[in-house]
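G., before I forget:
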Amino acid sequence: MFKKILIANRGEIAVRVIRACRELGITSVAVFSDVDRASLHVRKADEAYHIGPPAAAESYLNISKILGVAKLSGADAIHPGYGFLAENAEFAQACDEAGVKFIGPTAASMEMMGSKTRARQEMEKAGVPLVPGTSHGLESAEHAEEVAATIGYPVMLKAAAGGGGKGMRLVHSREELKSALEGAQSEALRSFGDGEIYIEKAIVNPRHIEMQVLADEHGNTVYLGERECSIQRRHQKVLEESPSPIVGPEMRQRMGEIAVRVAQAAKYTNAGTVEFLVDQEKNFYFLEMNTRLQVEHPVTELITGLDLVHLQIRIASGEKLPFTQEDVRIRGHAIECRIYAEDPDNNYFPSPGTITLLLAPSGPGIRRDSGMYEGWKVPIEYDPLLAKLIGYGTDRPQAISRLVRALNEYFVGGIKTNISLFRRILGDADFEAGRFDTGYLDRLLKTKPPEVKEDADVAAIAAGLFTVLEPAPAAANGRCSASGTTNASAASGWRKAARTEALR
Amino acid sequence: MFKKILIANRGEIAVRVIRACRELGITSVAVFSDVDRASLHVRKADEAYHIGPPAAAESYLNISKILGVAKLSGADAIHPGYGFLAENAEFAQACDEAGVKFIGPTAASMEMMGSKTRARQEMEKAGVPLVPGTSHGLESAEHAEEVAATIGYPVMLKAAAGGGGKGMRLVHSREELKSALEGAQSEALRSFGDGEIYIEKAIVNPRHIEMQVLADEHGNTVYLGERECSIQRRHQKVLEESPSPIVGPEMRQRMGEIAVRVAQAAKYTNAGTVEFLVDQEKNFYFLEMNTRLQVEHPVTELITGLDLVHLQIRIASGEKLPFTQEDVRIRGHAIECRIYAEDPDNNYFPSPGTITLLLAPSGPGIRRDSGMYEGWKVPIEYDPLLAKLIGYGTDRPQAISRLVRALNEYFVGGIKTNISLFRRILGDADFEAGRFDTGYLDRLLKTKPPEVKEDADVAAIAAGLFTVLEPAPAAANGRCSASGTTNASAASGWRKAARTEALR
Amino acid sequence: MTYDVIIDGKSYRLQLDRTDGRWLCRLDGREVQMDAVLTRRDVLSVLVDGKAYEIKRERTATDLHLWVGSARYAAELRDPRSLRGRKDGAGGEKGPRKLIAPMPGKVVRLLVAEKAEVEAGQGVLVVEAMKMQNEIRSPKKGTVQKLVAAEGANVNAGDVLAIVE
Amino acid sequence: MTYDVIIDGKSYRLQLDRTDGRWLCRLDGREVQMDAVLTRRDVLSVLVDGKAYEIKRERTATDLHLWVGSARYAAELRDPRSLRGRKDGAGGEKGPRKLIAPMPGKVVRLLVAEKAEVEAGQGVLVVEAMKMQNEIRSPKKGTVQKLVAAEGANVNAGDVLAIVE
């Protein structure tokens, strides 16, 4: 087993991995940029080293600095978390060359899956069901028109090096194709430094369902059940659950076995996720493989009772999987809400700033993986994910009701968060019935949310009460009013709520 | 289903039941004494009513006041939690007569189990294994000597109305018997208003293992696995786990079937617990039945995936059990630590006061059921249980390692807690090996805890740092020093740590 | 004490006094049975006719909001003896409108030139923060009078980015 | 700044200065590579030679403790320019010893009479708090000089209950 693991990440996932290290008796090493000195992962780690300025390229993406800290601290392994360097084959290679174990798949597996066209070619060979389309980059607009005519519109143009919706275009007719291709190419070039675009038949209103796999370095590969990830805003997952409301035992087994075939074809090791598109007839097609731990891994942990980060570390240290496929037992239902620092009343704009008040939920069926604390200043430089709230229940309705209860207990003051969005989704009749696809959330957000404001009277009374009971709010400059301050003068210090400009 | 439930309790269990109500869409009604106005259960409830002065007899034990609030608020059911009125047959009866559903067993079942001698008589009839002894009160010292001679020393004298170790005496020889009996009688009379004492053979170094049962009002009774409760200090449970390290599937089934027989013999409904003493050969004997929800119910919830409070409410509302014995699936391992306001360095004296700083753990496998918050003043009038920290893991070692991790994250400042005790137990080799009995903890506490204090240098530096970075601690009287305060003068305001008198 | 309280734009007259540990409360003249305690900084527990409310106070440099349960109310509180006017010119559809940076970030792209005609809702510039690019759109149909922020500039929350007239 | 710090009875001389956002730290003359930030009230994050420490400060009316991880240290900090003596008479085995109430509660039983002889560890009286009865024991062998608290009396933490000489 490793003695010391460097965590090349920040935020909630760094805290998550540090906790796993502590549980396994392994020393944890955090790294941090200038703006993360006071972040939770630095507080929680056993050791912590500064790695540069806020810009990720100069800190969390800086391979040589991170390997420098690994050497300095004597770390024998690196956990990359998700994002940043997690799917960077060059980094995995550099770790290997530096004699530090990269906790994840090999650089070769990553490279195969990193190119969407190469992955398609390999999966085609392995007999994995694919969305009809090309497994090579498009040579020209004419070539694209030819393929599109064969598979039929609508089609989807995708960047071979892509991800996160960038370099992606939905095309409904031949007329749109040429300009869409050019747009996709230039966006892909800008975003990934690679303009290669391929074409797939567009699945109308698909679901996005993925299968967790785990493979040790001795040839054993298992699947751990699916995750339903169709609740997305702008191609970004917002809420995930397991099991999927539409997947039964038979479909789970078929999907799981194909996911294992995908992993084996890629000679995959460690934790990975095979993403599928599912059409309205429940046909599923390989979409891509994520060669890392997913943000949404906790829902799988709750329904299987396993700890994926423990298992990642054990596998990387050379251990065999401690169970077989038959031992995997799925029980209950789990749903994850990604709590972001963003403003639901203002088009989900990011909302960095200082957290002035934090009330966190707990109790039965509630897991909270958080990277924030009261008094912490959410930096503007990184992903706005603050925490994940995961609800478990005997069944789906109970998981939902527990999450709603916990969301109502959750309060993050000083910045805006998307907590209200989850109350809305979890209370929606279509969601409750399991009727949704990847377009669901964008459609829901086009409708006006019901505003329940019955307690204005109570708010009015409370405004007065605060003035009486807590009359001298500590000002930011540390100025302190004399205790003889009258309520009236304290009250008049309160400012009118400035109207924000309508920016939607 | 009920529309409104009154929770006749306080602290973490009141919060626990309020949460369940919220999850089931039921309005919750809290009650509070003078010193509990700012308690967490009042903050969390939908409605809250004052019921009197701090003394429990005049508030939480005052049946007419509580039924008055039920009537005033229109509650159609009452959840008693544990302690206070939870096992009071008179209260269950009064609820019945007031037309409010008592969420628990009937008064008749409670009465049968409330008298230990009557319970023994009934269980004898039902063929439940009992510790050899009398099932009727002892008539005289001579009678006691006679029975003791038959069953053999050591014997245990117990109060028929007893509980919590009161009116209990371990007797090793005939010489001690008479005075022990007199002592037990007078203590029982003082504590329970009933001096009836019976005799049982003393099991040497027993384990205390209990079985959770659940019975609906349609004749269906199931068991939900055992809880190992041998870790006790002065006959009070401190840490509980499920499964027990010594119970396998076969023993669980036998024990569970007998527990179901006990419940059926008592015409038991709702959630209950059958306690067994287990000797070193794993023979088990009926000890008593607790006719309520237990403090330690969460460990059963974690290994079965069920919510016992939801099920209690459903059963009381007349629903059938939604599953059969065959559907109950036990998976993983769970351990609960009872966090008390007591001072481990001072013989576990209660430690009420204001919580000045609270850092609470979360993350994978951690459930926290808490009744405290930062700024809350722990009242001196009630049980010192502040919170329960429950760890779940794929297996026992993982549950232990997660709990240790979480305990290290837990910080309660301003009062003393027994958090360090759990670090000690969970790190002990005998505990890790599952080698313990009800005498284990008292034996452990006689040894001196290893003191690990390697960081005095860091503490010295931190003392200076606090003075520089947070120089003007808010004084209790609200006085505020000028911002020009020099570090030196702030520092000199700090007081020497007063030596507490040696009181052990 | 008497206060003028404005909640979500609606005015209330609140009388609040405390004698012998009991609250006397009148809202717009109507007596309210009420009890309250500050449980911790910025969190009140209020009981009104038996109903229990957990109320959170949220203050920023310019705003005061009160959360009753999960609903958020804009609050303003005035000493009624001060007689200054209530409207500080919130600005309507007429006249110039400012585009304000809703969060700190970096201006990565200007989408129109100065003096350009824009529709209501049309993107004017793009600000990047927390890995997301956000289009700042015109609040009204009109002419871009001024582009205050240049491409590449770092801006703070509340900075004026452009003016549309 | 220079401080005299006492941790668990041991004295340290600490020099602490900050220039350009960097700390200069000497402990008993030895230079320590250190960085620190106050993350929230009473919680410091300190890095010493790469090692990370979360340090909690706990203050009561009379005590100051620092928790480094899960270990608790009694701390005392003095301005070295003040020259008052260090021992405030903590009291040893000799002379009269006070029995102090360790928590607020009620005296439910006196176990000995005034002037009675007691052994070290012998119970003198019983205080009830939080549903638990707690025996207050004599810290030394001697005579109960005075029973300050009467049966039934309510006492606060720190109150003198009895004196043994």
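The first strand of chain D starts at residue 2 and ends at 7. Chain D has two domains: 2-78, 95-164.

More on Monday.
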